[in-house]
Design goal:
alpha+beta; Elongation Factor Tu (Ef-tu), domain 3; six-stranded antiparallel beta barrel; five-stranded mixed β-sheet; 20 strands
Length: 423
């Protein structure tokens, strides 16, 4: 039995020497490795395909983004066709209301205010006494001048008698020719002294008349700068201005004539030929909503201001009721005789550049073109374009600040394709 077992062992172990030991283990692992290699290659291939697909998708997304960015980089604008206004019969301009005549009243003599009789808002007539100034020093100077005049008159009378006496005695050779000539020359000198003294008296009397401040014309007191007891100094006075002193360069009253008012307007150069004398004007003021005041264009400066490029015009309006006040702001609706064709564009369409005003248009290739225009009235939300645009040419209603000539833009449908129908 032991032999069978031994024989069996030998038969089993003797058939293949690699069936046992280390060789047998390596032989067993080789089929397993051959089975894993295809799977590894497959996984590697899948990874390579995934990487290539991801890179391809990323390049495709980057290209799409670049294309979208290029497509949307152009600014979005809306366009509108300006309406042509063919019958503009009036222009609206801002105006300044001024008194027809205005005079600041200054003191001509130095003294103290004794009394004043009219305050601001008072209506005065020409020749009315406005105030009285006390001038004691001037009164004494006038008294002195009259005394000097009396002395000069007496000396002149004596010189006249002496000269006549000498001229009578010269025929009998009772006096010399020298004495006679001296007496005659003395008479001439005394005559001159009398004339000088009389002129000085008249000068001081004229100054004394300025103690009474008189209204030079019919009007309204608009300013009063004096009060009782105040010291008034004039040019050349040695009195130092202080508290309660009216300086020499300050008026004591202002008087304005307001029954007729002047309204000054600056007419743009484009409308200057239409600002003709006799044209009617309608005034509107914010303090009188819904009311109109009628005036007439009476004169112009006949010259264009080189800085403002405007023509100064004066419109006179009657103010018998005194409802209008000088210094007010008004809008002047000036009627014109010649119709002016204009195009109405949105105020936002105007582009202000250093060399003038422009509007943007879009050509057939979708690029912006800047066109220089001449602007008339600015009407708040809209403005008038006098020159620069062709009939039916659309303008960009909302140009960006960075818009340049030749830049590509994207046009979207405008809410209002036209600014309105032609009138």
């Amino acid at each position: 039995m032991s032999e069978e077992i031994g024989t069996t062992k030998r038969t089993t172990s003797g058939g293949d020497p690699r069936a046992t030991g280390p060789h047998a283990e390596r032989t067993a692992s080789m089929p397993r490795r051959r089975n894993l290699t295809p799977w590894l290659l497959l996984v590697l291939l899948v990874l390579i395909v995934a990487v290539i697909y991801g890179i391809s998708r990323r390049k495709q997304a980057a290209g799409s983004l670049a294309g979208y960015t290029r497509a949307n980089a152009a600014p979005v604008v809306s366009v509108s066709v300006p309406a042509v206004e063919k019958s503009a019969q009036e222009i609206v301009l801002p105006g300044n209301v001024q008194a027809y005549t205005m005079a600041p009243i200054y003191a001509r003599t130095t003294g103290y205010v004794k009394a004043w009789y009219y305050d601001i808002g008072a209506h005065v007539r020409r020749g009315d006494l406005l105030a009285v100034i006390e001038t004691p020093e001037l009164d004494q100077q006038l008294a002195q001048a009259k005394a000097e005049l009396a002395t000069a008159t007496t000396n002149d009378r004596l010189a006249k008698v002496t000269a006549q006496r000498y001229q009578t005695l010269i025929g009998s050779h009772a006096v010399t020719q020298q004495n006679t000539d001296t007496a005659v020359d003395q008479l001439r000198a005394d005559d001159t002294m009398v004339n000088s003294a009389q002129a000085n008296v008249r000068r001081l009397e004229a100054l004394q008349d300025f103690e009474r401040v008189i209204a030079p014309f019919d009007g309204v007191i608009t300013t009063r700068n004096i009060d009782t007891g105040q010291l008034i100094t004039t040019t050349g006075s040695t009195v130092t201005a202080g508290a309660g002193t009216i300086p020499s360069n300050r008026e004591i009253f202002d008087i304005s004539r307001v029954d007729v008012l002047r309204v000054f307007v600056n007419v743009p150069q484009e409308y200057a030929p239409m600002a003709r004398r006799g044209a009617s004007a309608v005034l509107t003021l914010p303090q009188y909503p819904g009311r109109n005041f009628h005036g007439t264009l009476v004169r112009t400066s006949d010259a264009i201001d080189p800085v403002m490029r405007t023509l100064l015009a004066e419109v006179d309006v009657r103010n018998a009721d005194g409802e209008l006040q000088p210094g007010s702001y008004t809008e002047v609706h000036l009627r014109v005789t010649d119709p002016v064709p204009v195009r109405i564009v949105p105020e936002s369409a105007l582009i202000l550049l250093p060399d003038g005003e422009y509007v943007g248009t879009v050509d057939r290739s979708g690029r912006a073109r800047l066109v220089r225009v001449t602007v008339g009235r600015e009407l708040g939300t809209t403005a008038e374009v006098l020159t620069g645009l062709a009939d039916g040419e659309a303008v960009i209603s909302n140009p960006p600040d960075s818009l340049t000539n030749g830049e590509r833009v994207r046009v979207v449908a405008s809410a209002n394709n036209s600014m309105g129908e032609a009138r």
